[in-house]
Backbone:
């Protein structure tokens, strides 16, 4: 949030400010989640369903999304899109 404050301040002063955002993907945790879901690990599936249900209220859709997490890129794409939506909802002045 500090970066957002600085970006807004300097924009208000007339400066041309670029405030980019990027995501770092760490493969090992993503692969561990994907493998656990593929093995039908109940604890991992419940945890992922809990996270996904914070953004998707329809129970059937939550299960479908979590089931798709057997493919690691689906985890990456889902959460990066979710974080982007969260940042926009917070009103952050990021340059996408």
Residues:
């Amino acid at each position: 949030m500090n970066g957002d404050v600085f970006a807004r301040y300097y924009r208000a002063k007339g400066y041309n400010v670029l405030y980019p955002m990027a995501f770092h993907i760490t493969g090992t945790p993503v692969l561990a989640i994907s493998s656990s879901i593929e093995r039908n690990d109940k604890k991992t599936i419940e945890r992922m369903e809990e996270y996904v249900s914070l953004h998707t209220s329809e129970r059937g859709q939550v299960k479908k999304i979590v089931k798709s997490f057997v493919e690691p890129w689906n985890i990456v794409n889902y959460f990066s899109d979710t974080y982007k939506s969260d940042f926009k909802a917070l009103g952050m002045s990021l340059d996408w």
